[in-house]
Amino acid sequence: MNKKNLADILSENKIKSTKQRRVILSVISELKYPDTAEHIYLLAKKEDDSISLSTVYRALEIFTEKGIVNKNEFSLSDKKMYEINTKVHKHYLTCNSCKKILTVEGCPLEEYEKKLSLQTGFEITEHHLNLSGYCPKCRLENS
Ligand SMILES: [Zn+2]
Ligand SMILES: [Zn+2]
After folding, report:
1. What is the model's pLDDT at position 51?
2. Mean pLDDT, to the nearest integer, of 15-41?
3. Cα-to-centroid distance, 126 and ligand 2 (Å)
4. Element (H or E) spanning 131, and its range?
5. Residue 129's pLDDT is what?
6. How far is the CA of 74 from the centre of ligand 2 (A)?
7. DSSP string spanning 33-92?
8. Contact 82, 37 (CB under 8 A)
9. C-alpha of residue 32 to centroid of ligand 2, in Å
10. Residues 119, 111: Cα–Cα separation, whole Å
11. Strand 80-84 vs strand 69-73: parallel, antiparallel, or unpaired?
């Protein structure tokens, strides 16, 4: 996402476009996997030294309310994780040890949903599937 897009996203959602909010949104849009408010803060602070943790919390709250950002509360972790809401259906793979989350695009359940819908007469509107285990790094460290 370029800077212009970020400003557009803010104005489309009637969020006051401040430099700090654009920096925070840009950091979130560049995350490779969902991350914590604290880590987003550290990354944003590198870009703009005037950003405080409470600015990040407040921005995340607004972005989540407006649906620009997804907040995932995974049972495995006490931490709330954030990611940009790409509105693409996906699943998550969480490491039990380091709590890193990998986003998996593509869905193996489409056929299953159709079959289940035929069998039960349900109109299935959504599903959630979170997988967990140990990432390659943690597997190495624990072996
Ligand atoms: Zn791990
Ligand atoms: Zn799915």
Report:
1. 97
2. 94
3. 8
4. strand 130-133
5. 84
6. 16
7. S-EEHHHHHHHHHHH-TT--HHHHHHHHHHHHHTTSEEEEE-TT-SSEEEEE-----EEE
8. yes
9. 19
10. 12
11. antiparallel
Under a CB-based contact definition with an 8 Å cutoff, are residues 69 and 57 in contact? no
Task: Quote the pLDDT of residue 76.
Answer: 59
Are 55 and 24 in contact, with CB atoms under 8 Å apart? yes
Q: How far apart are CA 70 and CA 23, in angstroms?
A: 17
The answer to whether residues 11 and 68 touch, using CB atoms and an 8 Å cutoff, is no
pTM of the model: 0.76
What is the predicted pLDDT for the residue at 72?
Answer: 79
Among candidate residues 91, 73, 93, the one with its CA nearest the CA of residue 82: 73
- Phi, psi dihedral angles at 59 (to 5 degrees): -65, -45
Residues 70-87 have pLDDT tens digits of 987 665 567 788 999 888
Measured in Å, residue 128 CA sits from the centre of ligand 1 at: 22
**Residue pointed to by tokens 């989540």:** 64
Tokens (6 digits) for 105: 């695009």
Place of tokens 């972005």: 63
Q: What is the tens place of the pLDDT at every residue in 84-119?
A: 988 888 888 999 998 888 888 888 898 999 999 999
